[in-house]
Amino acid sequence: MSVHIRPAKAEDLEDVMLGLQSLAADLGDAFNASAAQVKNALFGPHPIVRAQLAYHGAALVGLAYYAPMFSTLLGTAGCYVSDLWSHKTVRGQGLGVQLLAAVQADAAATWNGGFIKLAAYRDNAAALAFYRKLGFEVLADEHALRLSGAALRALGDAG
Q1: What tens digit of pLDDT does each residue of 22-40 get?
Q2: More confident residue, 153 or 61
Q3: Torsions phi, psi of 42, nearest 5?
Q4: C-alpha dihedral sign at 117, 42, 32, 105
Q5: Tens digit of pLDDT for each residue in 104-142?
């Protein structure tokens, strides 16, 4: 299968939304980001994420959505891939590897990135097997934590 992967541009917002929403649907997750929020995150005055899009002909078949980060432990910049999606018709054909390679190439060129970090659901055996096969390490010493909503607002009042 011939696939073309390229960075997302402002005119690709509809495809970015399609990829993100498709991933959420595949995982059974809620999708609460508006097109305006995603557009601002990708293409606003201070972009905080980047995306790679994969096409087979004119059809969107994959997406990687990622942001820069810096690890003092590793002593280098890298990126966090929050969303990696491939269409069900192309799974198992190497597109995930190609998308992650495009992410790494962009991160290396943009931030001198030396690592990729991501998370997968514990019950997603296929994803975990895919990432382990690529050499991703399960970080047993880490627990993913999130602060949001009322607790986040309360943090501002705690000081």
Answers
A1: 999 999 999 999 999 999 9
A2: 61
A3: -85, -40
A4: negative
A5: 999 999 999 999 999 999 999 999 999 999 999 999 899
Backbone angles phi, psi at 79, to 5 degrees: -145, 155
Q: For residue 159, what pLDDT is reported?
A: 60
Find residue 156's DSSP bridge partners. none
The set of residues, in sequence order, having a beta carbon less than 8 Å from that of 6 and lying 6+ positions away, is: 52, 53, 55
Structural domains of the chain ordered from first start: 4-158 (3.40.630.30)
Contacts within 8 Å (CB) and 24+ apart, 141-146:
144/119
pTM: 0.93
Dmax over CA atoms of the chain, in Å, equals 56
Residue environment code for 23-50, b if the CB has 16+ CB neighbours within 10 A, otherwise e? bbeeeeeeeeeeeeebeebbbeeeeebb
Specify whether the CB–CB gap between 96 and 72 falls below 8 A: no
Cα distances (Å, whole numbers) of residue 10 to 14, 16, 64, 103 = 9, 10, 16, 18
